[in-house]
Amino acid sequence: MSNITEKLHAEYQKLYNKPAENAFFSPGRVNLIGEHIDYNGGLVMPCAITFGTYLLVSPNNEGVFRFKSLNFDDHYTIPVNESYQKEDTIWINYPKGVIQHFKNDGHEVSGLDMLYFGNIPIGSGLSSSASIEVVTAFALNYLFNAGYTKLQLVLLSKWVENVFIGLASGIMDQFAVAFGEENKALMLNCETLDYKAVDSNLGEYVLAIINTNKLRKLAESKYNERVQECQAALKELQQELDIKNLCDIDTATFNQHKHLITDATVLKRAQHVVEENDRVKLAADALSKNNLAEFGRLMYASHNSLRELYEVSGKELDAVVEYSKTNPNVAGARMTGAGFGGCAIALVKGSAFDTFAKELNEYYTAKVGYAPDVYSSLIGDGVGLLKAVAEHA
Asked: In whole angstroms, what is the distance from residue 387 CA to residue 22 CA?
């Protein structure tokens, strides 16, 4: 067992006065490239990261679910034989939603004592909510022999996010944390759910994840605005092209028909979408050939497009990329996620990571006025069962 798992088993014993019978882990995720194209029928390329959510579980005979997280002070106990509703801003809404879905599908569930611990920075855009949903769904599927496939667990978790919690998000997050593979990126079509695992051996590099620590106040309203602008571009292109989504065409076809788009801003949005979708294909090719220099160039090109054409960056994300370009140990960097704050990623030589983090911190703080958080990750596995404590007793 890793140090972290050993500590969690000790905490579980202390809390519940018995050992945990099973332990599970579900990662967070980052999107390596392919931003703001999922709602345009495009390709995204997320990967699982090496930190996430741990869940330790043992059954009880008291007809209740007990929830405790080491990230929060509160404990919750709820009866098994109840119908659950979302409550205000409580983290157990995510596991409650999962249990409710199991019940809706007619599965018998019984009492569990559950301990969660997450080392994903909450609110950073690294999918802590999807990680909680998927680890809970995977654990219940395992413990109650419910027979769901991994894809069904993904769709179940998306239902929790969209219906039980009420957030209109896509499927990429749950898919990446469930299907992630070590040293593989997932090139995923969010519409068809077809995907390809792309060899992504980072070699001497690590993935630096930089949380700007900026609150993303604009993200939701601007997100909806961008969706509408893309729909406007699609409608105009459909005058001559038989397409369902902007990403049904490549850059060459777009350039032949872009005169149909009459609004300059809408034209910029569509240009980003089509070119970014092409970049994902080029990035998959570069990674599979272990050409990290080309992949890094595509990361910078993606960020530039998101800043200039899609206008979803900001001084915080730009500061990370500006600094990265000055550091010879960085192959590439870009914002990741919806933008207006959240996270950036950079491909950094592992031997130079500590210096990168220190110098970036100084550069960013001087520019922005407060410090970022910088984490090092590899490309990790998706959700799974950790070894039971009994094997280590």
From this structure: 7
Q: Is 221 annotated as a binding residue?
A: no
User: Could you tell me if 302 and 334 are in contact, meaning their C-beta atoms sit under 8 angstroms apart?
Assistant: yes
Helix residue ranges, H only, 238-263: 251-257
The overall longest dimension of the chain from CA atoms, in Å, is: 70
Which positions ≥6 away from 174 have C-beta within 8 Å?
130, 133, 134, 154, 157, 158, 161
Q: What span, in angstroms and rounded, lies between the C-alpha atoms of 43 and 41?
A: 7
Residue 127 assigned ligand-binding role: yes
| 173 catalytic residue (yes or no) | yes
Domain layout of the chain by residue ranges: 3-200+380-392, 205-377
Is 272 one of the annotated binding-site residues?
no
Q: Are both 3-200+380-392 and 205-377 of the same fold? A: no
Mean pLDDT to the nearest integer, 260-275: 98
Instruction: Please tell me the number of Cα atoms within 13 Å of 362 on its side-chain side.
Output: 5
Find where tokens 């690294």 sit: 126
Tell how far CA 332 is from the center of its chain.
19
Q: Enumerate the β-bridge partners of residue 114.
A: 57, 67
Q: Burial-class residue 98 by CB neighbours within 10 Å (0-12, 13-18, 19+).
A: buried
Question: Are the C-beta atoms of 339 and 221 separated by less than 8 Å?
Answer: no
The confidence band for 219, taking pLDDT boundaries of 50, 70 and 90, is low
Where would I find the H helices in the chain? 3-16, 93-104, 128-143, 150-159, 172-179, 219-237, 251-257, 264-288, 292-308, 315-326, 353-368
Amino acid found at 228: Q
Q: Which listed residue (173, 263, 278, 381) is catalytic?
A: 173
pTM over 0.70: yes
Is 35 annotated in some ligand binding site? yes
pLDDT single digits (tens) 47-71: 999 999 999 999 999 999 999 999 9
Residue 38 among known ligand-binding residues: yes
> Is 37 marked as a binding-site residue?
yes
Residue 339: pLDDT over 50 = yes
Q: Which two tokens stand for residue 100?
A: 């409710």
Q: Is 180 annotated as a binding residue?
A: no
CATH of 205-377, one of 3.40.50.10490, 3.30.420.10, 3.30.70.890, 3.40.50.300: 3.30.70.890
